[in-house]
Amino acid sequence: MNGLVGIGEAARMLGVSITTLRRWEAAGKLVADHTAGGHRRYDIAKLRPDLFHAEDEADRRTIAYARVSSHDQKDDLERQKQVLELYCARQGWKFEIVADLGSGMNYRKKGLKKLLGAIIDGSVGRLVIAHKDRLLRFGADLVFAICEAKNVEVVILNQGEDTTFEEDLAKDVLEIITVFSARLYGSRSHKNQKLLDGVKRAVEESAAC
Question: pTM of the full predicted structure?
């Protein structure tokens, strides 16, 4: 079996995930030999990254991601989705809308996990968001770095200030305070809790202004 490699090595050579390699094989873009034990083996001479990425580019879809922090912002979420849908449709892109309702500091949101999985899988060619902070409050640049590594184009419709920045930031700060409050309640420190209550009131008053 000289010149043949396993699925893990083939995926590494092509710079894609094993899932993507299997998808290419199912689509007939890549043919694997099989050992007596049923293991896939790929011919090194036929593993040309430039060819496979060029063929796969047309199949990679666009994901438009929308997010708001809380239930009382549902109207804003619908506006975001409409703006993203209209923009993508005008470009003639094949797209999917992925939306989340949750804090920009929550990395476990269902939609965000779906988005990251698709980017890592290699099935996404373009990410469209209304504003950088709609992705994550902190950590968006890390997602963008992953996109760059996976050759995913990032389109940000609004490069200016996010109109909901102050409101969302206040909600995120309150979330942090709530977490720390829960921890400090256990320590039974009246001084610490009094300090956090004061900070929380200040944030709430600032958000109401």
Answer: 0.57
